[in-house]
Prior knowledge:
The chain is 40% helix and 25% strand.
Amino acid sequence: MIAIHLAEAIVAREGQRVVHGIDLSVAPGTWFGIVGANGSGKTSLLRAVSGRLPFVGGTCRIDGRDLTDDRAARARAIGFAPPADRLPDLLRGRELLDYARGDAPLDAARLADLWAALGIPALLDRWIGECSAGMRQRLAIAAAFAGGHRCIVLDEPFNWLDPVAAYDVRQVLRRMADDGLTLVTALHDLGTLAGACDAGLMLANGRVAAVLDRAALCQAADDPRQFEREMIDRLRRGG
């Protein structure tokens, strides 16, 4: 079964189409990366998949169910990181994660390595309003996982993380995907796309500019400089 399947998916914001007829398939237990320039439609696409925006055309199936017209069901099915800069200042880290968890039991054993990589224990009793951008990003990522979802969508999760945290989180996410997590991330880092993801695509002007299967990413990992040059050339050309 395909975890996420889009066919001719269209997303609009403020009445303007920003994602045009996207076809996308994400297999269960894989890490799928989406790259593209700013304004290419990455965030809008991920927000629609996770139920934060509607689809205005095409179809969206999650675990075989047609949820195109059911934003609430998509939101329940997928863990999604809230924008780090919009986290409520007057909550402590613990309260944010409790709110994100809802009624789901906390799988402490499954999340222990991720919590350690994110430094969550040190943030639990800290007011979010006193947190740096990097700390807020750590809490936002943790919030996506707090509800125990087996499918997670993250929009550029490594922004604002220091190099050590970014490396540690990337390693944990890779292990979680190997253990069955379905992960979809928007990325600016072509190295992560080549070295950590199982498949992906490039967006340009709201359309698919390139599909990157496992073979293409394995080749990219073997020659990352050539892959980077090719991807940058495509991004310069807008696909």
